[in-house]
């Protein structure tokens, strides 16, 4: 029984080098590459992060939680890396 380090929801495994739920994994993949100035917090970084309000403040979710628990931006695959990975998977299926 793993718990997401970002929002406290049920987690299945490690994602980007931290235990996180599927929702926070997808959020991190979409938002980590963006410029951090893009995100604003209406409450000066004092947002509480849990399952019920994780979607209300992107800045706090990304900065205060995702990066603090150790999620790593460099683990996000580029489009080329994704295509190469798919090719390897297909090649292994034929073996």
From TrEMBL:
Signal peptide: none annotated. The keyword Transcription applies. InterPro entries: Nuclear_hormone_rcpt_NR1, Znf_hrmn_rcpt, Znf_NHR/GATA. Keywords: DNA-binding, Metal-binding, Nucleus, Receptor, Transcription, Transcription regulation, Zinc, Zinc-finger. It comes from the Eukaryota. Residues 1-78 form the Nuclear receptor domain. Coiled coil: none annotated. PROSITE patterns: NUCLEAR_REC_DBD_1, NUCLEAR_REC_DBD_2. It holds the Pfam family zf-C4. GO terms for molecular function: DNA-binding transcription factor activity; sequence-specific DNA binding; zinc ion binding. This is Nuclear receptor domain-containing protein. It comes from Helobdella robusta. The lineage of its organism: Eukaryota, Metazoa, Spiralia, Lophotrochozoa, Annelida. The gene is 20196413.
């Amino acid at each position: 029984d793993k718990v997401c380090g970002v929002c406290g929801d049920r987690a299945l495994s490690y994602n980007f080098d931290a235990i996180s739920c599927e929702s926070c994994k997808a959020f991190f993949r979409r938002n980590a590459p963006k410029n951090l100035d893009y995100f604003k917090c209406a409450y000066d970084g004092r947002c509480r992060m849990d399952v019920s309000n994780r979607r209300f403040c992107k800045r706090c979710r990304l900065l205060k939680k995702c990066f603090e628990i150790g999620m790593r931006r460099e683990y996000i695959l580029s489009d080329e890396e994704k295509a190469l990975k798919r090719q390897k998977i297909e090649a292994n299926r034929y073996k």
